[in-house]
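hey m, so remember when u said the tokens were messed up on ur end? i reran from scratch. heres the input so u can diff it against urs
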Amino acid sequence: MGRIIEICANSAQSCVEAEAGGARRVELCAAIPEGGTTPSYGEVRMAQKLTSKIDINIIIRPRGGDFLYTEAEVESMLYDIEMAKQLKIHGVVFGCLTKQGDIDISLMRRLIDASKPLSVTCHRAFDVCRDPFDALERLVELGCDRVLTSGQQPDAARGIPLIKELVRRADGRIIVMPGCGVREDNIARIEEATGTKEFHTSARSIVYSGMEYRNENVPMGSSVVTSEFETVQTNRKKVAAYL
């Protein structure tokens, strides 16, 4: 099997770029600076309309922050899963932890059962769980198709030792997909060291605003945003460089 690239897409147009660059799949998210939240119905519909071959997964995450959810947040997630099924997308991506830092088995089962027959990926909630090896076994038992992980490190390159061990312990029962900091200059090293074949990356470039009149004294969001007149978007040439 050749290398499979999944793109963390922040818009329908990023999905177009991911497909054009040869990616197999996207994880469509809103609010990337918060680690990704559920995209809108309209964004998902446009991603479907503008692409024809790529598999579209959507993150099911009602907010940024931790992965301990209230019942109201869980119901919101269930509504979004219902939307995903109605739109017949490929899969959903979520992760839930207990307050002790373990996989919330009962809640994950509830969400997985609601998601059938869609593909299910556990996202990087895994990277902040207490015991990654126990968590891996729980995800296998729950029937998750894959787990996205940086090896519980700030980036996947530094997480190579744990990712390698997770792949060994998974033994083909679940796909271990490195993500976070996967770049064209380190993907071959991560692949060789861990034996993984699926990779999660963004492959984005800056897109400059077409606005001619600009008032840069009034920000619309967080002060960490460098400019209201710059956004980022997946770039097909960058995607192709991973393959």
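this time it looks ok to me. Strands lie at 4-9, 25-28, 55-59, 91-94, 119-122, 146-149, 175-178, 198-201, 204-208, 230-234. if urs says something different then somethings off w ur setup not the seq
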